[in-house]
Amino acid sequence: MKKVVKTHLSVLFIMLSVVFSYGQDIAAPKELGAASSAIEKIEASERWVDKFSNQDLVELPMGIRNTVNNVQYSIGITKAVFSPEYTTLTVFCRVDIPQKDKNGQPMQLFFGADNVKLSHQGGIMGEAKLVLLGNVDIPFSDNKWQVSLYGGFDMATGSVNDLTYVTIDCDGFKEMKISGAVEFSRNLILPIDPVSKTVDEAKTTVPKTYYNGKTVQIPNRVRGEFSFMASSWNDILVNVSLQPFTLKDKRNGKDFDGNFQFLVSNAVLDLSDLKNDPTVVFPEYYAKNALLTPSPQAWKGVFIQTFDVGLPKEFQTTDTASSKERLHVGAQNLIIDKYGVSGTFYADNVFPLDRGITSQEKSWAYSLDHIDVTIAANTFVKANLNGQILLPISKAPQEKKETATTATPTASAATTPTKAAQTNRVGLAYNGFISMEEQQLVVVTKDSIAFDLWKAKALLLPNSSVELKLVNGKFLPKANLNGSISFGTNKGASDDKEVEGKKTVDFKGISFENLQLQTVSPIISVRNMGYKGTVAFGNFPVSIGNINVAINGNDSRIDFDLGINLMESIGAGATARIGIKGKMYDDGYRQRSRYDGLDLSAINIDCKFSGLTIKGGLILMEKDPVYGNGFNAELEVDVADVVNVKAKAIFGRTTFRYWYFDAAVKWPPTPAPFMINGFGGGAYYKMHRNPDIAIGDFSPSGLSYTPDEKISLGVKALIYFHIGSETICDGEAGFEIAFNSRGGINRLAIFGKANVLASIPGLKNVTDLMGKVASNVTAKTSFMGVTESDLKGSFASKYIPAAKEAIPGDLSAQVGIKMAAAIEFDFQNHSLHATTDVYINTPGNFLSGIGEGGRAVWGVFHKDPKDWYMYMGTPDDRCGVKIGIAGMFLKTTSYFMAGTVLPGSPPPPPIVAQILGVDAKELDYMRDENALANGGGLAFGASLDFDTGDLSFLLFYARFQAGMGFDIMLKDYQEARCSNTGDRVGINGWYANGQSYAYLQGELGIRVKLSFLKFKIPIISGGAAVLLQAKLPNPVWMRGYVGGNMNILGGLIKGKFRFKFELGEECQFENASPLGGLKLITDVTPKQSSADVDVFAVPQAAFSTKVNEAFVIPEDAGDVTYKVILEKFKVFDGTKEIPGVLEWGSMKDKANFISTDILPPNAALKVQVEVSFQKMVNGVFEPIKVDGKVATEYEERLFTTGGAPNHIPLTNIKYSYPVVDQKYFLEEEYPKGYIQLNRGQDYLFEDASWETSIKLDQEGTSNSKVAVFNYNTSSNEVYYDLPNMDQDKKYNFSIVSNLKQTPSRNATAATKTNTISNEGNDIQVRENQADALSKAEGNIERLSYSFNTSKYKTFNSKMNAINTQSYNFGVIYSDVIYLTNTISSQEAFDIVELQGVNYSDNKPMIIAQSKLNDEYYATDIFPYLYKDYPLHGSYSINSRDTSELGVIPAKAIPLSAYYMTSIENNVNQSWTKGNFPFKYNMPLLYKQDWIDLDNQIINAYINGDTSVELIAKRFINSNFLFMRYGNYEIVMKYSLPGDKQANEFTYKYKNMNNFR
Hints:
Helix content is 11%, strand content 49%. It is built from 21 helices and 89 strands. It starts with a helix and ends in a 5-residue tail after the last strand. It comes from Flavobacterium cheongpyeongense.
C-alpha cells in the first residue's frame, strides 16, 4: 500500500512539474498526462525490453530505455491495435534533461505518436516520429534567458510540421529535431521594433501564431529562432538569428536614443556541456573574475562573432542626418549569457571631418577617427573616442568635389575608407570618453588658428579647452579659449576676398580670456580683452579704451573705442568707435561664420592747444537705404573764447549726388543799443529739410536734411544780434531759399528767434553752491552749522519734503521769455504758412506759460488755394499764463480763431457740470452744430481760474476754487436748415453761439491724526455755479442754469439746488430725431451709397446716449428718467436677412453688427437701425407716443460691397494654433491644429473644382508635410491633424488650393480702377486682378504664416528643464517684499504665452496664480482678512477691483516689465533665459487689503459703531506681519487658444529671509 501511495504521489509531482514547465502561452495537451502516467507505470513495473517486437506486446505498457551523453530517453508503448498487415502503436517518449524549471525542479520532455506501425516480421515501418507534446520553456541562468521548444498536437496523423520531435526504431531513441527560439529577459536587453527602429517600452507583448493556427500574445523579448537535428540533448551548438536589440538601461536617463544598438545576423547558441564554438572569444575579465566555472566548455549562452553596431543618435553625419538613420560600424566578439551582454569592440576611421556634425542645426564639424566600446555584465562601461573638431569662427576654403568610397570597419582591423573630400582647414585634435555618468572631451590646442569671422589670427594658450556636452540627445560643443589675437582689415576687404592694400585696422597683441563659442545663445561671448602690442589705425598710433564683443542673434561684432593721436607734440587727438562685424549662419546642418565688414560709424575730435579748441564729429554712411554712401560732419572751433565758428556738411550719393553745407561764426558782443555779433550761411543741392525739423532751426544737428532729386539748389543765411547786452536780449534771424531744376523758386522761408532775460546773472552760481552744500556733509557743517543727524530730525523729515512738494522744480538759470517766429512760402503748392511761439519761465515757476515747456502763446496762419485759417490758440490748446506759488495759483487763458477751417465750440468746464449736477454731455449745447460741415467763421474765448491749493493752520485745513469764462463763435453753416422752422439757419447760414459761466466752491474742516489713523472732518463745504448758453439769430435760443450744494458740520445741514430756464426755440436740423429735439442715432456706417465696401466691413450705429440704460435729464419740473431702446439693427441682402450678432462699445453708445460670415461680395446691401424712447412714469418705463403711435427714430443706409478676397486675411483670424508668429510652439500639447475665423469664408472651400490642403514647410529644407483639414461652416473653424515636427525649427504654414483640371495658360490679366473719395480728395488706384491671375496659374495660397517650434514638446518638459539658480527678493516696504528667481534655461518665454496677441484672441496662454498652500497665508493672512469675508458681514475691499485678482488675490503674480520689454523688442536674450518672468507679489496685495479693511473698520468704531468693537480691537492689537521663511508655490496654467485644453505645472519660489 505504501508503495502504491508513494508511486501515485511521485506521478502527481512529476505531472505538475511537467505542466509548469510547459510554455504559458498555450495550454499543455491532454496527452501529456497519459504519457507521464504510462512511463511511470513502466518504471513501477520495470517492464523494460531491449527491442520492440510483436511478442513483447502481450502486456502493456512496456518500453525501452537508453542513455546518451548522460541524458536518459524512456520510450513506452501504451496501446497496440493489430491488423493483418501491421500493428499500430501508441508510443510516448520521455527525455530527462539536466535543466531545471522556474521552480528549481528537474525537467522532462514528453513526445508522442498515435500511428507508429510495427510490421509483423519485425521492425518499424518507415520513420517513427514522436512529436513534442506542447510548447516547453526551458530556463537558463536563473531565468535570465530561456530556450522555448515548439511542439505539436496531431498524434493521429503523425504530422509534426518540421517542429520538435524524436525519431525511434526498434532499438529505441535514434535522433531528435529541435525547433524553437532562444529568448532573453527584458531585464537584460530589449528588442528594437523593425518598423520604427526604436524601443517601444509600452509594447510588452507581441502576437505569435503556433502550429495549430492559434495566435496568442507572448512576451516581447529579444528572440532568435533555430531548427536543427541533434544526436544528443547535451551537445547542442546551433546558429540563431537574433532580433536587433539594445541594453535595457538608458544611458541618457531619458530614452534609448543614447544607447548603442546591436544588429546580429548570425550567432551561435551554445547549450553543450562538452565543447564551445571554435570562434568564441571570452572577455578578459571573465577569466580574472572566475566567471567560467566549472570549465569554459560548460559555459552556456549566445556568442556573436560579427555584428553591426548602431552608434547613439548623437553621432551624426551629413548623410545620416538627412536620412534620419543611425551611423553603423562593424564589430566582433560579443557574448550574451546569465550576466547579460559583454564585450569590447572598436572601429577606426568612422567618419571624416567634412561629414561629421555635432547636431542637426548650428553644428560644428568633427571627425571620429577611433572609437572603442566596453560593455561588461550588461553595463555600458565606457566608450573612448578621438578625432578632430573644427571651430566655426574659422572660414573653410572651398571643398573639392571628390567621390568617396566607404567600407565597414571591423574590430580586428578596421578598414580605412578611401579618403573623402576633406575640409581644407585643420581642426583641433581631441581625446574623450562617454560613460553612463559623464562625457569628457580634451582638446590639444594648435599653435595658431584663423579667426576668419573677424579677419584675425589667434594664438591659443594651453589652458584653452573644448567641451562636448550631451543635452537632450544632441552634442552641444563649447569652446573656452584663451590667448592673443591680431586684427588686420580695411573697408575693401570682404568675406571671400583677402585684405588688399593698406590695412585701416592693424591691431596686434590683443589678449583675450575665456572667449566662449557655442551653438546656443549667446553663440559668442568673452570675459575680458586687452592689449599689449602695437595698435594702429590708418597709420596713426592709437590707444584702446574699451573692447566689447556684442551679440545680437547670429550677428557678432567686436567694437573698439579708439583714441587716435594726430599730433604728438601738442596732444591733438580724436576718438572713434570702430567695429569689426561677423555673422554666424547655418549652412545646411553646419554652423558657419563669415566676415561681414568694417563699421567705422563715427569719429569725434576734441583738441585743445594754444587757446584753440576744436570739437567735431564725422558719421560715415555706407549703403544706407536713404543716404546711400556718404558722410555727415559737424565741426566747432573756438579761438581763445573770442571767436566761435560752427560748420556742418553732408555729402553723398544714392542714384544721384547730393550735398549740404552750412557755417556760422559768432564773436563777443560789444555794448551797443543794437549790435550784430555773428553771421552764417549755407547751401545744399538735391536735399530738403526733414518735416520734423522746425523752419527756424538754422543748422540742426544730425541728419536733418534728406536727399530729394526734385530740389536743385538751396541757400540759407543767418545773422546773430543782441539789443543792449546778451543778458537782456539776444537772437538770430535768417532766411532760406530752395530752387527747382528750372531756376525757379520752390520755397522761401524767413525765421527768427529772440531770448529776453534768458539768464539771470549769478543765479547759476547760487544753485551750484546749494547743490554742493546739499551733497556734502562737510559743506553742510561749515556752511549751515548742521550735521546729517540734524537733518534726520522730525522737523526736517516732515516739512522739507512737504516744501519740495508744494514748490516743485529746481531753480534754473535758463529763465526769461523766449520767442520764435517763422514764415514759409511754398511756391509749388501756392501756400503760405507762418508760426509763432512765446515761452515764459521764471525761477520756481512763479510766472509761466500754461503750455508744455512754459509755452504762453502760440499761433499759426495758413493760406492755400482751398483754405485759410489763423489761430492764436484753440479751445483745446489755449494760450495763457499762470501765476502761483506754494500750490496757490491764478490762471488765465484765451484763444482766437478765424478762417475757413474752425474747430468746434467747446462745452463748459467739467467742474461747472459737476457743481450743477448735470451730465456734461447735456451741456454740450453745440454737439449737433459741430458735426455739420461748415464754411469757416470767427471764434474767441477766455477764462480765469483761481485755486488756493491745500491750506492748513494748526488743526484746520481749507481749499477754495473759483473761475469764470466765456466762448463766442460766429460760423458759416452754409445750407443747413432747421426742420422745425423750415428756414435756413441764421442769416444766410451764418449762425452765432456763445456761453458764459462762473463757479465757486470750497471746503473748511479739521484734520485729525491718530497713531493708527488719519482722516479729515469737514466743517463746511459747498459750491455754486451759473451757466448761460445762447444760439442766435433765426432761431433765437437761450438756456441758463444756476445750481449749487452745501454740507455743514459733517452733514448736519446739507442740501443742493438747481434752477433752469430756457427761452426761444432750438434749431432742429433736418434729419434729426422727432423726440424732443434730441437726435438719438447720430451716425450709421457704411455711408449712404458707398461703393466697393470691404466685405469685412462692420456696419456700425452710433448713438447720442447709452442704449438700453436709464439716464436722467433735468427738466423744469425736476429730473426725469429716460431710456433709449434699440428696436432694430439689421442688414439685408435684398429681402434676405444676413445673420450676425451685435457687439456693444464699452460706453454702450455704439453698436457693431458682426456678420457670421463675411458680407456677400458684389452685392447691394441695406442697413436698418431703429430706436424708441421710453420715459419712467410712476416707477415704470412707458414708451413715448406721438399722435398715438410709439415715437421711433429710423435710419437706413444703402451700400454696395466689393469683391471677396481669394484668401484669408490675417485680420480675420480670431485665434489659431499654432499661433501666428509663435516663437515656441509645443508640438505634443495638443494633437490638432486649428484656426478660428472672426467671419466665415465658406466660399473658399465650397468650390468643387479646387482641391485644398494644408502644408507645413520647414524653413531651409525641402521637407514639406501635408495635412488633411476640415472646415466647419457653422463655427467658422479650420482644424487639422498636426504632423510630426522637429524641435527648434521655423515652419511656414499655408493653406493652398490647387485647380483639379489643367490650368489654362491663355488667360489675360485684368485690371480694375478704384476711385476713393474722401473729404473732397479723389484718388484713383489701378489694381491687378490677383485672384484671376492666381486661378489662371492653377494655385492659390489661401493663408500663409510662420511659427517656430520649441526645443521642447510639452509645457511640462519645458518647465522641468528650468533649473533655479538662486531665490531672490525685492523690498517694497519695510514689511513687504516680492520674490523672484534667477534660473538657467535653454529657452525663454514668448509674448504669445505671457501677454497674448491678436491671433490668440488677445489672451495669454500662461496664467499664473498662487496655490495658497503656504504657512504665511494660512496662519498670518487668511484668518484676519479672508476667512469671514466680507468682514462683519458688510466690510469689503474697496481699494481694488476684486474681480481682477480675486477677493483672495491669488492672481497677484505679475510679469516683469523689463522681461516683457525685452521679448517685445527681441533683446537681452541671455537675460530672459536667466530670469523667471513672473514675480511673487502676494504680500503687497495682502498689505493693501489689510490697510483698506483696517481703515474702514476702525473709522466705523471711532464713529460710534460698537458692533465692530471685537474685530476693530483685533486690528488695533495686531500688526501686518512680514513674510515667513519657506517655499511659496504657484500654479502655471497653460491654456490653448479658444480654451481647447489646459495643463498645469507647479512652480516654486522661496523666501530666504530666515527670521520668521
